[in-house]
Amino acid sequence: MSLGFNGDVVDFYQKYRRGYPAEAITTITGKFSLTHNDIALDLGCGTGLLTRPLAETVRAVIGMDPEPDMLARARQEGGTNITWMLGADTDIPKLTAVLGERSIGAVTIGQALHWMDHDTLLHALFPLIRPGGGVAVVTNGTPLWLHDNPWSKSLRASVEHWLGHKTTLTCGSDAEAQQRYAESLRANGFTVDTDTVEYEDELTIDEIVGGMYSALPPSKLPTPEQRPVLAGQIQRALEHDGPFIEHVRVTVLTGQVP
Ligand SMILES: C[S@@+](CC[C@H](N)C(=O)[O-])C[C@H]1O[C@@H](n2cnc3c(N)ncnc32)[C@H](O)[C@@H]1O
Question: Mean pLDDT over residues 160-181, rounded?
Fold first, then answer.
């Protein structure tokens, strides 16, 4: 069953989702002492926004995702030492059987753990990772419609009016979710730490609308004919709220195998 990362949503994802800052990648590679002898796994890799920078510091990366359309786009974007693999969190025990225990230096999960059964997954990941390596749960900031500023509030009101319901989805970026993930890491034997990278960026209306479309399931995505109508509504709703500065707070929650 598709989760909704398919069709036109993939194009919006690839065009409008921001990549991860270099400091977030060096945090992961430094913490787990990754070298060109290591293999890494990027679980829920999507179009490969986190997979590709990670691949520069290790021997090989497996980018794994259950959505064929996301993987097809990831493959198109390239990566010579990356193997793109169709699979989900539930496939980890089988992957461990293929690769062997303690064979992986790092498992990264970027903006995707909220889709998975994190307790079962983290338990399954522990034997796959070598000592000193670990899991990095990365969130790439708060969703655009949940910031505490006038333009984000106007965006939220406009989108909720269009959808006909509230939009409260935090994609695992809220403190409560982070706490749950940290506790689960600890309970499964990992040593836990959190690092953050913060910066500001100015967005255009086009980037705000595209970023929002990239987060909608295809069933909620406006038709190509409706898209300019909604974009116009958002533009009017935000016209007195510029400049559109996004404060991006990237969190890297790590669980290290002792
Ligand atoms: C918001 S996207 C993040 C993609 C990428 N990691 C990034 O940071 O841009 C979430 C991804 O998780 C994937 N996903 C959903 N359920 C999953 C599961 N059970 N196991 C692995 N990946 C899953 C989706 O297909 C989607 O590509």
Answer: 87
